Each structure stands twice: as structure tokens, then as C-alpha cells.
Amino acid sequence: MSNSSSLTQFLLLALSDRWELQLLHFWLFLAISLAALLANGLILSAVACDHHLHTPMGFFLLNLSLTDLGCICTTVPKAMHNSLQNTTTISYTGCAAQLFFFYFFISAEFSLLTIMCYDRYVAICKPLHYGTLLGSRTCAHMAAAAWATAFLYSLLHTANTFSLPLCQGNALGQFFCEIPHILKLSCSHSGYLREIGLIGVSACLAFGCLVFIVFSYVQIFRAVLRIPSQQGRHKAFSTCLPHLAVVFLFLSTGTFAYLKPPSISSPSLDLSLSVLYSVVPPVVNPLIYSLRNQELKDALRKMMTGCFSATITSLFSSVQPLKCNS
User: Fold this and answer.
1) Max alpha carbon distance in the chain (Å)?
2) What is residue 67's predicted lDDT score, i.e. its pLDDT?
3) pTM for this structure?
4) Residue partners of 99: CB distance under 8 A and separation at least 6
5) 326: Cα within 13 Å, side-chain hemisphere
């Protein structure tokens, strides 16, 4: 029997038992991390540098890219380190920090997706009031509220989870620290119920946000179908479909991972689902937005062309012409 005061580390789920496959997972995670860093970094740079993207949607997209970078940098580096070092350990404080930051960025992302839904609703259903309802100060306040709420949410869950006495060992059935897997190690019935209550309240709030998103998109699609020109309908759908796809990817993977029937649960399936909702979205989200957003594609093309031209110019200017000695 062990308790939380004597625990100094946790054992994470090994991605594979074979060293060759562990190396393969390392290189795979490295490629995913670099792709996420590059894609989100390009979006951050494009939104920051192009004045055409200095809009409420661009501002919220910048914040969304920050949450994606935070998610990928919270879970993947430790998994890569463990695969390369052929170990599964994570320190007690490291586990607490990983859990806090993972839920901080995940909850901030969901809040931002809800706010971005409101942005699309106002832009399409109330275009004449767009500048009034979504001014720069209002957008800043909404984004600050999303980040602050996420901070309080993750702090509350982390503090409550790691205050529970743990007496069921230290092996977590996950490749990163997550609340449900830590709760399985708890031997405090009251503390367990308290955390379940907090999760229930969080689920109710998330369901409320989901209802708001569904209601908003019902109104959006009704307004879009009333647009007389086909070009106008296409432009409206182009601005909404990327956000809807990101919301669906975020909710479907996370919901199925947490609410799937125990009868179909298995270590390999659980591992695949955890990768789907924690690692894949930060890579896919920038691609979804950049493929359908013409202004973002133009900004990225302009930025990359400018960087390429500057690089070529600097290379040629560094080559000095040869002087012939008379």
C-alpha cells in the first residue's frame, strides 16, 4: 500500500514493448510535433503580419493556434523522451504540471471555439452590427475570459485530483497524465466523488456550450440559405465549414474516448483514441483553416513568397564579384 505522500513518480503507459517500435514512435511524434509547430507558427506569423487578418476571426484564430501549440508541447515531448530513453517514468510534480497545462489548453480551446461560433453568427446573421458587437475591446475581453476560465478550471481540477490519497500503485494506463487514470489510483471515496462532481459540472457547462454552438449554426445555415447569390452562399459556407469541422473533430474524438462502452475498451484502442484527441487536432486544425480561408491562404502565400525572395536576395548579395588583376 502506498499513499500520495510517498509517491515520487508515476509510470506512464509504454507506447510499445519493443525498442524498434519505440524508436518508430519517437520519430513519428517528432514529425507530428514539427508539423504542428510549423503550421501553427505560420498562422501566428500570418495573422500578426498581415493587416487583412486583423479581424475578430483572425484574433481568435491566433489564440486557437496558441492553444494548439500548448497542447502539443504539453504531452508529446515527455512521450518522445520516454521512447528514446526506453523508460515510462514521470515525476509527481511533472505529472501535476502536465495535467494542469493539458486541461488548461484543452478547456481554453473549447471556450475559444464557442466564441468563434458567436463570431460567425454575428458576421452572417447580424452583419450590420458586427463592428459594434465585436469590437477590438470586446474581443480582447472575450479571449481574456476564455483564458482565465481555463486557468481556474484546470487549477481547480489539478488541486483536487492531487489532494486525493493514492493507494492503488502508481501505474497510469495512459501515455500522459490524465484525471480519470489518476482517479483509479485513489483510495478516498469522498475525494473521488468530489472530483466526479466537478467533472459532472464541467460536463454540464460543456453541454451548454455545445447547445449554443448547435443553435447558432441552425440560425447561420438558415441565414445562408436565404442569400440570393450562389457566390455569397459559397463565401459564407467557406467561413463556417472550417470552424464546424474543427469543433466536430475536437468533440467527437474526446467524447468517444471518455464515453465509449467499457466492453470495447482495450489498451491499444485507448492509446489510439488518446492520440486522436490530444495530438492530431493541433496538426489538423491549421490545415482545415488554411485550406478553406482564402484571406489566410493569400497571407501565407504572400509571407512565404516574401521570405523566399528575401533569402534569394541575401544569398546573391553576399556573393562578391571576382576582380581580375591587371
Assistant:
1) 94
2) 93
3) 0.85
4) 154, 157, 158, 161, 162, 177, 178, 179, 182
5) 0
